[in-house]
Design a protein that fits this description.
With 67 residues, the chain is of the alpha+beta class. It has one domain. The protein is 40% helix and 16% strand. It is built from three helices and three strands, in the order βααββα. Strands 1-3-2 form a three-stranded antiparallel β-sheet. The chain is globular and about 40 Å long.
Length: 67
């Protein structure tokens, strides 16, 4: 059985979006990133659906990918 995750932690977000954790923190501080959700106590994570929507809304680039 293959289950799609609903939430991702910081490490999972960074790996999924191909961004560094420091870049994600910068985007969060700039208010340009989805808000994390409180799961329990001090545990936070991001909704995959909101991350996908954010990624889809990113502008198209004319730059070639980095080698």
């Amino acid at each position: 059985m293959n289950v799609k995750p609903i939430f991702l932690d910081m490490e999972g977000v960074a790996a999924t979006l191909s961004l560094s954790e420091s870049t994600i923190r910068t985007l969060i501080n700039q208010g340009d990133f989805p808000k994390s959700r409180l799961l329990s106590g001090r545990r936070v994570a991001w909704l995959v659906r909101e991350l996908e929507e954010w990624a889809e809304a990113r502008p198209v680039s004319n730059l070639p990918p980095v080698a």
